[in-house]
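QA checklist item 7 of 12: single-chain prediction sanity check.
[x] sequence parsed
[x] length recorded as 140
[x] structure emitted
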Amino acid sequence: MSKGLSKVLIRDRNAFPKCIRFFSEVRGICIGNCIASRALYKVAFGTEEVAHAHSMVYDKHNGWICLRYKEQLNQPYLLLHEVAHLLVNKKEYISIHGKKWRDKLIEIGGTVFPYTYFDFKLGIKFLYPGYDTRGCLYYS
């Protein structure tokens, strides 16, 4: 969704997808834009990011996961990726996709390998990168 479209807030833990429901660090899920009222920003290749987590301790929205599409609620690897940020990336000096994050992601059932998810409703193919041991992105 682009700037100006409405967002949906999910605060009820029972409405969270099962794969992240029991992580107390997850305070809410915002769909359609960022909980902080900033547009999902442009990243590499001129595309909009599809998700991010507010993990920094000083962020008033700490614990929120922001998704571009509601259909992403059905993507457990994406959701676990963002939960791993909430669990590990609380300070700027912690590498975003570094060893601590990778280890935590694997521990909670996520993957550091690239994967593809095709959403038939949206007609969109999501290509998610993998992360090597240095935290660098790669695609298969």
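[x] summary fact logged: The radius of gyration is 14 Å.
[ ] second reviewer sign-off
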